[in-house]
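Tutorial, part two.
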Amino acid sequence: MCGVPAGRIPAAYAASGRRAVRVTLVAAAGFFLFRYGLGLPVAATYALFSAVALGGLSKIPGTGRQRAATGLRALPVCWLLVIVGTCLSVRTWSAVAGMLIVGFALAFTAVGGPRPAGAAPGLQLLYILPSFPPYDPGSLGERLIGTTTGLALLIAAEALLLPEPPPPSYRERAAHAARTAAHCATLLTAPPHALTGTDSGAAREAGAALRPLTVPEAERPAGPGLRDRALAHTGLATRTLLSRLAQLTTPPGDDQGPRVTAVLHAVAGLSTGTANSLGSGPAPVAAYEELAAARAHLSATSGGPASAGAAATGGTHRPVFPPAVLRRHAAVLEIADAALAMATAADLAVRGRRASVPVPPGRFWYATIRAPRLWWHRVRGHAGRRSVFFQNAVRIALALTAARLIAGVDTLPHGFWAMLATLTLTRTTMDETWSTIRRALGGTLAGALLTAGLLTLVGAHTEIYAAVLPLWMLLAFTLGPVKGVGWAQGLFTVLVALVFAQLAPPTWRLAEVRLLDVLVGSAIGAVFGLLAWPRGAHDELRHAAAELLRRAAEIVVATSADVAAGGPVAAVPLAVSGHRSLHQAVILAESAYAQFQSEPTLFGGRGRGAALPTVDWQATLIAGHHTLWGSERLLEPPPDPLSPAAAGSAAGLGDRVAGRMLLVSAALDPGSDTPAAPVPRLDPALAGLTAEPPGAPRLYYATVSWLSALMTDLARIPRAGPVPEPTTMTAARARE
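Running the prediction step on this input gives:
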């Protein structure tokens, strides 16, 4: 930065320094232009605080150009907030009612992804600033001019000044993972028909690079729109494909068979085509059709159903294969399904509704739905007290409303500072809020003492404040984000004093008012942090994960029964009818898990939080995804009926796995009368259910493979001790 070699500056300071330079140049330029150049103090105030709101207070992820694009889209919203805040400030009750509605709406926009969530605090400030007296509708034009100028300068600065190198996009990561899958599939077509340790490690690394927690926030496909949903689906399908390829074992007798080789060749071709498509190449239509045909031929040969939309060979003699070969056929068909899903999702992510690759119904339900309905689907899914987004929006809206009411009733001087303190210091857990408030009050006290001394020494010499303001602003926005909330509050206390000393005759009591406002805002934040879901996502994650496993258990039982019966046991397949509920449970669990990852574990061994460190929550989410995908694969199209022995074995094993899910769900979120006995990591009664009925078709082995994967997921959920590998079902198959 500024001619200093980047390697000599810590990365955190370099990043905050770049942003501090942009915000300082914009805020100072707008403030000085209107305050001293045009004599418009109101416009000067709004120009400065607009830049500070979206450039400093907001945490919009991404590069400068990405933040500039977000700011440009938010510009009409900023105008609306200033207009509404100005109009409602005429009465305390109207300003309070507006704060409740606007505060909730802006906080709830976090359901739209990281960028709306990051912009929300700055947008809150742009409503808070005009919602205080004096009620002066005549100054609305000046307020809008200042706001527009500050935001326009900030957008230009973000796009042009000190650009950061962009990280790899999610599409680039997915394309790399698809090429890795193509390489692995190619290796599996030649002896020894299994991956080496190095290749398996490369597949795991490529899959891990698609996990949301390893992807920068700005690159995560977390939005509710078609392309974001499809890109997230691409990542899940690609990770599944890589995992299945790495787990494929050497065929018995080292004799793979031409149809299996044809499927793996087609998987390699489709993976390469998908990678090219993600890089803006043509859609892999021909490769998709080739794999669909190869999959249909293998499925028909091994006695299982063909893929949806593919013509199965009818009337041909089906050879009898030994169980080991049928298990390999089932594994290869799962690989083909994952590759087909990956290609479809990638084409939707790149081309939207103009996708060329066939889009099967069910799994890609969002492909034909317009953007407003997709947004409504996302909002409706989180419009309940079990959503952490809803909880956070209620918490911050009530806290800001109380702060506005107290500031209006008590005529608190500079009352918006109290609301700003409430906004910036309220956290999602009570322990974190209290820890933040303690550091903030210490920093504010130090800043207030420094401010009082500065105002006493300098007095009314505004030129000194004007000269110090840009330097102090650069210091505050560089050190504050790195040093923490105590430093940030202390530096910002001096900063606001430097600003308001140029707008009105200053006295040392300005520091006293600032300290009082922060104390009031902190107290309000602490009260609502205590009253509104004080444990944040910690307890909610328990409930969401347990509910996910309960819904998954219903799907497992219904799917096993449908497979055993050769079709739906009811007019509407129970498994299919429950997919939407399980999908909603997965969404709520994922959002709770994402917030849980950002919250420090401060509860020690108290109460229900004591067992949190012993749970692998991501294994719970993976179990939910595996339940959804496996059920869809087995039931589309409707399967042929199994023999009585195979049907009984599949249904019994499904019931056992579902019962296991219910036991784990009860352990995650126990009720008052839940037995306290620990749940063993492996089912001790499972060994008797792994006896393979003679003459079982490939569909039976596909079902057992799916249930075995779910048992492995369940065994990984408790972290106490290593996961036994292989599991009982896997070991039974390995002994053949």
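The two ends are 64 Å apart (CA to CA). In part three we will examine how such features are distributed along the chain.
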